[in-house]
Amino acid sequence: MLKENPTKDLIYFRKAKMNEISSIEDILQEAYQPIVKTLSRLPGALVETKRKLLDDFHNNSLFSIIHNNKNMIGTFSLRKINKNIMKLYHFAIDPSFQHQGFGKNILNQIKEEIRNKHQEIKILAVEVYQKTPELLRFYEKEDFILFDEKTINLEKILILHHGI
Q1: What span, in angstroms and rounded, lies between the C-alpha atoms of 64 and 95?
Q2: Which fold has domain 2-163?
Q3: pLDDT tens per residue, range 63-84
Q4: Strands of the sheet with 123-129, listed across from one edge
Q5: pTM of the shown model
Q6: What is the pLDDT of residues 15-57, one digit of tens each?
Q7: Nearest-CA neighbor of 90 among 153, 20, 40?
Q8: DSSP 101
Q9: CA-CA distance, 36 to 24, in Å (whole number)?
Q10: Could you tell me the CA-to-CA distances from 34 to 64, 147, 162 in Å, in that order?
Q11: Are 78 and 30 in contact (CB under 8 A)?
């Protein structure tokens, strides 16, 4: 699905290709650096990343975010948790493309894609660390609401939901 964002750049997502896995891993490593600094350790999304990305690739749930029909600038994975909930994982935009509306644009495209192709899905879920207020604000601006909390490795993780 092709959309234009406010900067008039063409941005869209598609299924990832096998030869993009290393680039996807690089984008995740770079985009997650502020979280690594905040937590003083690797977040769960970066632990065993290659294996998880390959699993998502083979399950057709790994996506590449493309800018102007040429550059991969981000990635995400979607997994169906149950018959009504889809969960967003590994959502990352290359830091040099952040704060330009690309994340918001892609998130809106993801929600539209779910509405059009997965009518049974009623909720899009995402998890963020409580210690990452910038990420929390991003999702709250996109109408995600706090649904639950959990603690892993002494870190509080907020589970956010968005009605589809």
Answers
A1: 15
A2: Aminopeptidase (3.40.630)
A3: 999 998 889 999 999 999 999 9
A4: 2-4, 10-15, 62-67, 71-80, 85-93, 123-129, 155-163, 145-152
A5: 0.89
A6: 999 999 999 999 999 999 999 999 888 888 788 788 889 999 9
A7: 20
A8: S
A9: 17
A10: 21, 24, 24
A11: no
